[in-house]
Amino acid sequence: MSIWNLDQRDLWGADAAASYDTPGEGMFAPDVLGPTLDRLHALSEGGRVLELAIGTGRVGVPLRERGADVSGIELSEAMVDVLRTKATEEELPVVVGDMATARVPGDFSLVYLVFNTISNLYTQEAQVACFRNAAAHLAPGGRFLVELWVPRPQPVTGGRHAQVFTAEDGYLGVDVLDMAHQRVVSHHIHFDDDGAARVWFSPHRFIWPGELDLMARLAGMELESRHADFAGAPFTSDSPSHVSVYRLPERPAD
């Protein structure tokens, strides 16, 4: 079976859910999570908040603890099971389903999709549907925030190439990119003390910033801001990622 035919629920099953959380480290580190929560809390402006692909609650749970009214959508029941060890359904309701189509009752002032997760949708059609689903959840004037990495240009020759995105003690992260089809397979290699290696991979469809802006327009939203990170650093040609905020008009256009 092709990697591109794998169901996301299989990739994000019980094993992935059990090892996803790394408290105080990696994407759970205070210097990563703190600015994320600060920005989301400010953008929510006291209204209801919806996280697409909420996972184990890395962001949604501490955002709720700051006083936000958070709901979520998540495809993997295994990830939701881990979230439920941190917050009940009454405290943080989650609809199990596809972030491109699942609906949560009511309107929201902020919908957000962090840590490159929109690229878990393998086609442009599905990604456009995700933007439209986000817009359908927003109250007039509401915002949709997307955090996404920026692919590096390919070498002069060859249609596929690899990029190391993380190299540290006990862990190596490598992306193998297919530029012609806007596909990337991320390889996560963990080294045990005895020298053994464990490899986990995840396929993605990457999106250029300009393409993301067009998806927003198709969903009736406009780009409000773009920064290199949650702390508000300027976005430049050298930025490896971006945090983009799109806004739904206060009232429908004539």
UniProtKB/TrEMBL annotation:
UniProt GO BP: methylation
Single GO term (MF): methyltransferase activity
CDD domains: AdoMet_MTases
Protein name stated in the entry: Methyltransferase type 11
Gene3D superfamilies linked to this entry: Vaccinia Virus protein VP39
Keywords from the named record: Methyltransferase, Transferase
Domain Methyltransferase: 49-142
The keyword Transferase is assigned to this record: yes
Source organism (scientific name): Beutenbergia cavernae (strain ATCC BAA-8 / DSM 12333 / CCUG 43141 / JCM 11478 / NBRC 16432 / NCIMB 13614 / HKI 0122)
InterPro entries: Methyltransf_25 (IPR041698), SAM-dependent_MTases_sf (IPR029063)
Pfam families hit by this protein: Methyltransf_25
Source superkingdom: Bacteria
Lineage: Bacteria, Bacillati, Actinomycetota, Actinomycetes, Micrococcales
